[in-house]
Structure formats: structure tokens, C-alpha cells
Amino acid sequence: MAYSDKVVDHYENPRNVGALDKESSNVGTGLVGAPACGDVMKLQIKVSAEGIIEDAKFKTFGCGSAIASSSLVTEWVKGKTLDEAAAIKNTEIAHELALPPVKIHCSVLAEDAIKAAIADYRRKAGLPEDEAEKAAG
Amino acid sequence: MNASAVAQLVPCWSCKGPVASRALFCSVCGAVQGPGAIDHFTRLGLRPTFEIDQDELERQYFGFQRRLHPDRFAAKSAKERALSQSQATALNEAYETLKDPLKRSAYLLSLLDHPVDLTACGTINDPVLLMEQMEKREAIAEADTPDAITRLSAEADTEVLACQCHISAAFAAGDLDEAAHLTIRLKYLVKLADEARTRKTRMTRAMR
């Protein structure tokens, strides 16, 4: 199985690798893992007073597809509102990176990671956690 | 579980006489039988428990495989050659599943109607495990001396063994929730130990 050019690009030049201060009140942290691969992914967002994601960082221990998925998501969420970021679907990630079926779980992991980071931020900020669902419904 | 312990009888395809569903050969006409719909433990003549005797597993497996060696079927009919091959394949699958503690644990849980899906796409919601694994994977990635990585690798191997002991205890106590939880933990620990070993090999090679 060959990785797509986009996966290779994100794998070789991952965007936004690193960490934000998880104790900070305007930082949300999502930590997820899938039993399928035994990998772990940490995705963090820094949210402005206006509710816009200003910065995003990730650290992933996993295969190329998992690294590429989380790298891509950090790029996508910057400048988005929380609701917009929460609406990102794993199918969009998988499509953008042309992930093969056996690597779809990597994109699921990235979607879950951003959702977990948003939920963590909302919890800290005292916002209702199901805001995204209400907005979508 | 009790059902698998009882020898189920099916008709032999060749002489129609009764034959145990786990038998390789018909005791009446001697014809090789196809692999019956039985669990991996029964297939290898073992009790369905997490704690197994590795030597017995090997003995059973290689004993059965010897009797199915293709040379023994060279002069037999095409049907018997095909059946002996499917028996050999079924035995391989049973052996590969049972010899690996992680696969054995997951398989036993599914037999006990308490499946844990290790191929699941979904993410696990166990912050303690994830935090611990994140920190340990970081430590392995950052280890910069052969001594440091050797120590981390040994620690990871020890944790794998400790987790297997805990799984064994959970099964013995009939606590399947705990066994399932620990099986997912074992999956992560095995991965961690693999990563540590890979890095150790690479690092000690580079030092030479």
C-alpha cells in the first residue's frame, strides 16, 4: 500500500507539531486513541475571546496516516469558530488525504481529537458542551 | 462454554458413521474430516481458559499438523487432499490465535459473549491509559542514550507481562469487564514495547 502524496507531505513536513499550555483557560486539549492501532493522538486548540481558534498543535504517536490526519486538522481548524471546527467530518479528512479503507480509523481519530479538544475547552469556559449539536440540529 | 466441552457428533462425509466434530479422521473408515464448526480451544484439545500451557499448545498443534502433512495425502483423492488442507488452515488459525496472549484474551472474551473489538475504528475513552501512553511514547522518542532506551524497553516488557497476569486474574475471578479493559490496555502496552524495541535496535546499531 502506497501513501498518497498528501500523506507523505504531511508526514515529512508535519504542520503545527508541539504543545500548548494545557493548564491555560483558553486552551482545549483532546487526547484520543484507537484500539485498532494502539496509537495516541493529542490535539490542542487555543481559542480567542471571540471564540475563534487562533492556534492549534498536535502530537501523534502513530502511523503516517494518523500523523497526516492530525496535521491536516490543525491546519483546517485555525481561524474557524468552535462550531465550524466541530463540524469537520472524518470523511473529509480521509478524502483530502486519499486514505485507503484500512486507514480510515486514522481520520476518525483526528475527528474525535478535535471534538474532544473543543469539549475540553467548553468545559473549562463553562459553555454547554452540546452547543455544536444544537447548532447543527 | 459447556457446549464446546461436550464432544459433538457429526456424520462422516465418507462412511456416514458418527464422528466427533473435532476429530481429524473418522475412527471407522479413517477418512480425513473437514474442519468442524468448533472453537479454537476445542480444535486444539485445550480447555477454554486464558491461562494455557504453552508446551501443551505446541505439542497438540504440531502433533495434529504432522498427521495432516501433504505427503500423507499424495495418493488420496482430491477431496481428501482438499479437506486435509482446510484442516491444516483451521489448525493454523487456532494456533496463531491462542499462542498470542493478546489475541487469546480477545478471542476468549468473544467466546464468552463479551467481545472487545481490537480492530475498532472508534476511539477509546480512557484518559488515564491515554495520558500514560502519551508520556511513555514521548519518553521513548526522547531517549537519547542506549542505556536509557534499554531501561525503557525492559520496563515496557515487564508491563506487558504484568498486564497478562492481571488479565489472567480477571478471567479467573470471572470479571469480564475488567478482562476487556485490560485487554485494550495490553494492546497499547504491546505497541509500546514494540516501539521501544525498534528504537533500541536502531540506537544500539548506530552506536557501533
Question: What would your notes on this structure say?
Answer:
- The complex is a heterodimer of chains A (137) and B (208).
- Chain A is of the alpha+beta class and 137 residues long.
- Chain A has one domain (5-125): Sufe protein. Chain: A (Alpha-Beta Complex), CATH 3.90.1010.
- Helix content of chain A is 46%, strand content 19%.
- Chain A contains six helices and three strands.
- Chain A has a three-stranded antiparallel beta sheet.
- The termini of chain A are far apart.
- Mean pLDDT of chain A is 89; it is low at 132-137.
- Chain B has 208 residues and is mainly alpha-helical.
- Chain B folds into two domains: 2-99, DnaJ domain (Helix Hairpins); 127-207, Up-down Bundle (Monooxygenase).
- Chain B has helices spanning 2-5, 40-43, 54-67, 78-99, 101-111, 127-142, 146-172, 176-207, and strands spanning 9-11, 18-20.
- In chain B, strands 1-2 form a two-stranded antiparallel ribbon.
- In chain B, a hairpin with a 6-residue loop joins strand 1 (9-11) and strand 2 (18-20).
- In chain B, helix 7 packs antiparallel against helix 8 (176-207).
- The longest helix of chain B has 32 residues, at 176-207.
- Chain B is elongated, with a radius of gyration of 22 Å.
- Chain B starts with a helix and ends with a helix.
- The model of chain B is unreliable at 1-5 (pLDDT under 50).
- The A-B interface holds A 31-40, 42, 59, 61, 104-105, 108-109, 112-113 and B 116-124, 126-127, 129-131, 133-134, 137-138, 141, 184, 187-188, 190-192, 195.
* Strand runs of chain B, count: 2
**Largest beta sheet of chain B: what is the strand line-up?**
1-2
Which oligomerization state do the chains in this entry correspond to?
Answer: heterodimer
Strand order of the largest sheet of chain A: 1-2-3
Helix-strand string of chain A = HEEEHHHHH
User: In percent terms, what proportion of residues of chain B is strand?
Assistant: under 5%
Number of domain units of chain B: 2
User: How far is it from the N-terminal to the C-terminal residue of chain B, by CA?
Assistant: 54 Å
Helix percent of chain B reads 55-70%
CATH homologous superfamily annotation of the largest domain in chain B? DnaJ domain
Tell me the greatest interface: A-B, 19 and 26 residues
Helices of chain A, by number, come to 6
If you compute it from the alpha carbons, what radius of gyration of chain A comes out, rounded to the nearest whole angstrom?
14 Å
Counted by DSSP, the helix tally of chain B is 8
Task: Please give the CATH architecture of the largest domain in chain B.
Answer: Orthogonal Bundle
